[in-house]
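hiii, so i know i said id send this last week but things got crazy w the move. better late than never?? heres the sequnce for the chain we talked about at the cafe, plus the structure i predicted for it. fair warning i was half asleep when i ran it
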Amino acid sequence: MNPRIRIRAGAVVSAAALVLSSTVVSVVAAQTGTQQTGTQRAVGGGTPADRAYRDLLDHGPDARILTAAHRAQWRSAPENSVPAILAAFEDGAEIVELDVRLTADGVPVLMHDTTVDRTTDGTGRVDSLTLAQVQQLRLKKGLGGAQAELTDERVPTLAQAMRLAEDRGLVNLDKGWPFREEIWDVLVETGTVRNGLYKSDAPVDQVQEFRSTHRGAVYLHMITDANLAAVEEFGDDQPVAYEVNFDAATDAVARRPFLDRVAARSRVWSNTMWNGLSERMTDEASLIDPLRGWETLVRSYNTTIFQTDDVVKLERWLGTGTGDPLPRGAVRVQAEDFLPGEGVGYHDLDAANRSNLQMRPGEGVDIQDVDGAVSLGWMRGGEWLTYDVEVPRDGTYELSVRASSPYSPAGAYTVSFDDGAPSAPVEVWNTTSHAKQELQRSGVTQRLTKGTHTLRLALPEDAYQNWNLDFVQLDPVRR
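okay and structure toks below
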């Protein structure tokens, strides 16, 4: 590990400043002042985009760790939308990752898929629709999907996105290499050549030909074991970064000697959105323990750029060293820690675990790994779970669940304490993905005394149920 890791806002941590707890070793930032985000943060003069560009070119041992927001801040707005771009920068990302496609009339627009079906109220291939037709479509909430709620947002052009980014930060132009000339025209027109980050795994000679004829183009290269020789082929003219993807730590691109050579002249970009991009070192694993993801990628894999689906929580870790800390006075119980015994501690309609984690052999509750999060799946009406919760002090508490579902309705539950009457049904939100969980407040409050209480979560039989449960949380109600 480097003896010094640049974290945020000029904060530097020495090896001696690493702190050990019973379950976590975390990098803790020694903050030198109040951290700022978004357009307020422009240390060293100029705009936040100036700072992000200077930081991107810094490959030194104290290089600042940069955050790239996958499809922008889709947790706040539709993916690849104007408000998602603004939210990503405001939440602290230096880079937004956006997906580029061409319309039938050759205009670069923001769209991840080859079709508009998943993320809009339309159908058809992007390249079969004109710009006018594409801009008539309404974007769906979050990551979209068949049952995601429609919004009033429209599909942006790349030019719109680049004008937003001009003073705010950088844009990773994903899927854009086949349209590099059309993208270049947009970057020149909007005065944002240095803001746009080209990316591909194309043959090196093709990349170098483009770079030689497009002065100022910023480029990063994608590598796996299949094309790791590209690092040597670039010679002295290295890309600003390498997006290193590996599904096993034994892959050649994941080995430290190779990564040391890469990091000596470029930045190492790691993707943590789901399993198989950086083995199993994901956002979700990092929230449980940063050593399972983000922190180990910095320490052992030379990562200095993270592409994430959890901008806010990654930024918090960069500033504090904690993954998903429990709020002061709150109680959290992991979903898989239900009380034992069919018909006593739980009731499940299937006799066997239908999911992929056999954590509690002989019990029928469906425990699963969802990109690093241990959660319960196959939720069905008529099932129930009980938990022991240790309340730290007398008070009134509100219950929340961290849950996920791509469906509307997703499901519902009731909650009761100490064999009391159940609450009214609480609806589970559509998070637009089974793998993307959100903490959802229930509005159910309960007065509890200090000590152990039993909580029962029950799924009404008359409600459609198809959601995942990560954990249950009780937060003190402060008046």
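btw The domain at 331-476 is CATH 2.60.120.260 (Jelly Rolls). thought thatd interest u
miss u guys!!
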